[in-house]
Amino acid sequence: MVTAGGAADSPGLAELLADHRPQGPTETADHERVRHLTGAADAWDRGTPLHFTASALIVHPPTRRVLLRWHVRQRAWLQVGGHGDPGEILPLDIALREGLEETGLTDLAPWPDAALVHLAVVPVPASPVEPAHEHADLRFLLATGTPERARPENPAAPLEWLTIAEARQRTTEENLRETLDRAGRLLDAPA
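Request: output the structure for the sequence above.
Response:
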């Protein structure tokens, strides 16, 4: 099992995007828009107007539930994830680290495999410390076998286990609803 400490054979950015098959016109346009960034030295630099982030929808396959986190800045229920730390360049490793930091779950593993599930370019509003910008968010599914061990990173970022339908109602983000739909199809697939 690959754990939140690091993914075995985690693909790099260019390989991940080359292997990914976008679904629908929005993701196809986003995919074409960000492919040129894969070779850029600042592809993960949060100081650029468009940069990569990595996130994950955490799933518990036996109960078909997903974990959402309240994001104070975005004022929305979202998946876990964020920016790469200095020197980090492997998207799945970033998603695993963020998942561990934001949930405390130590058994996170790519599910059903390490493939990119969804690419979404999302706007981020300006804050007192940075201008408005966009994230090219690389989304994975990570599974846990110990959902009861999930703990929020801090009191302002509660976590909730929800069914796909409940999560769709809870979020206000249409791009996350698409990620949830994709996760739902995989959770419904015969084993």
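Helices lie at 13-19, 24-34, 91-103, 164-170, 174-188.
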